[in-house]
Amino acid sequence: MRTSTRRSRRLGAIAVVAALATGLLAGCSSDPDNGSSDTNNGGSGKGKTTLTIGTFGVFGYKQAGLYDEYTKLHPEISIKENVTTRTDVYWPKTLTRLQAGAGTDDIQAIEIGNIAEAVQTQADKFVDLGKEVDKSQWLEWKTSQATTKDGKTIGLGTDIGPMAICYRKDLFAKAGLETDRTKLAAQWKGDWAKYVDLGKQYMKKAPSGTKFVDSASSVYNAALGGESERYYDKDGNVIWDKSSGVKKSWNAAMTVATSNMSAKLKQFDPTWDQGFAKGSFATVACPAWMMGYIQEKSGASGKGKWDVAAAPTAANWGGSFIGVPTAGKHQKEAIALAKWLTAPEQQAKVFAKQASFPSTPAAYADLKPAADTTAYFSDAPITQIFGDSAKTIPVQYFGVKDQPINTAISDVGILQVEQKGKSPDQGWNAAKAEIKDVLGQ
Question: Does domain 162-317+379-439 have CATH number 3.30.230.10?
Answer without folding.
Answer: no
